[in-house]
Write a structure and sequence with these properties.
alpha+beta; Aminopeptidase; Alpha-Beta Plaits; 2 domains; four-stranded antiparallel sheet; about 35% helix
């Protein structure tokens, strides 16, 4: 069946779609800081109603509401659950933003600037506007649609699972589509993923004296900062291999079909354009082509998000900090379970003399 009539409606109403996205981006919704979430959920619901899509709030035990909508096809049909989220990552550092800052939604040369313009507010509206296009042109949608739009994805959806368990019947579907991906670099073709790595967020905390101590006493006082540096050096080597014992035990092995998909993708994607976008001359370890695609898609990772320790303000402050923290995210591939990964990480630190370092795990 031709889709040209739907495409024509979208083209004719592109300005409306862009204006709605601009309005959406201009509403802050930072889940990590609990900023603007209910206001943004209200805006999502209002825009869905304006597009002819039934939508209502579902309150969670904690946190901002889920916006849920349900649109029935006129004929018996399959049901697709459309997942997206209205929350965004923190916009800091604010002084590095151009084009009016993170909430401007300013459009320059066909590009909209603002936090959430791609992840994931454009995804939310893509579902909604596609459904509206069918309703406007054909008077119905081709399949039953359920819309699940949450406000805590960027902090690991800590309250979504409990709500989902209470609403199994509501969420029943024949398939689920998560429109939270990206475009293939160089092709501008939507990147269709058959699965994703999971992510485990961890904070390592080293503590020393009960207060900051003058650095003159360094020969006598343990430094939590150095303890963390030494501990981190046991987790990952220069070749990006995770050194935690048993970390990759029983991992899923790629088959011929997987390798062929990687080869096909490497032929499509412009990796040089990606290097240019990031401002680097080469990928880590000199990877390129299929090797680069394979590593990004299937390799487990141990990334340091940031470190918090001591004094970094103007001037000098000669101290041995009494505490140091590092935040990490581990990307886990199939058959690496988060609880097992935490157990192995703690055992690894203990084995290497860092059992005193506290390990805190966060939802991911």
């Amino acid at each position: 069946m031709s889709m040209q009539d739907v495409y024509d409606w979208i083209d004719a109403n592109a300005d409306e779609c862009v204006r709605d996205l601009q309005r959406f981006v201009q509403q802050p919704s930072i889940s990590a800081q609990n900023v603007g979430l209910r206001e943004c959920a209200t805006l999502v619901r209002e825009m869905m109603h304006a597009d002819g899509l039934p939508a209502e709030f579902h309150e969670l035990d904690e946190g901002p509401p889920v916006v849920f909508g349900h649109l029935e096809a006129k004929k018996p049909s399959k049901t697709i659950l459309c997942y997206s989220h209205y929350d965004v990552q923190p916009p800091e550092p604010l002084d590095e933003w151009t084009h009016g800052g993170p909430w401007s939604g300013e459009i320059v040369d066909g590009v909209m600037y603002g936090r959430g313009s791609t992840d994931n507010k454009s995804g939310v509206l893509a579902f909604n506007k596609a459904a509206k296009a069918f309703l406007q042109v054909r008077g119905e949608v081709p399949v039953n649609l359920k819309f699940l739009i949450e406000g805590e994805e960027e902090i690991g959806s800590p309250n979504l699972a409990a709500w989902a368990e209470k609403n199994e019947e509501l969420l029943k579907a024949d398939g689920m589509h998560c429109l939270d991906g990206s475009m293939e670099t160089g092709t501008q073709v939507p990147d269709v993923s058959l699965g994703l790595k999971s992510v485990l967020f961890v904070e390592l905390i080293a503590r020393g004296a009960k207060m900051d101590v003058h650095s003159l006493n360094f020969p006598l006082v343990e430094s939590p900062v150095w303890e963390l540096v030494w501990a981190l050096n046991t987790i990952l080597d220069r070749d990006r291999k995770i050194l935690v014992e048993g970390w990759e035990e029983g991992i899923w092995q790629l088959g011929p079909d997987d390798e062929q998909q990687l080869t096909d993708k490497a032929a499509r994607v412009d990796l040089n354009a990606l290097k240019e976008e990031w401002g680097i001359s080469e990928f880590a370890l000199g990877r390129d082509g299929v090797d680069a695609i394979r590593a990004r898609t299937y390799e487990p990772t141990a990334n340091i998000q940031g470190m918090i320790a001591g004094y970094t303000g103007p001037g000098r402050k000669t101290i041995i900090p009494n505490e140091a923290r590092v935040r990490m995210d581990f990307r886990l591939i199939p058959n690496i379970q988060p609880a097992d990964a935490i157990r192995k990480l703690k055992a690894h630190l203990e084995k290497h003399g860092f059992g005193h370092i506290e390990v805190q795990a966060f939802d991911g």
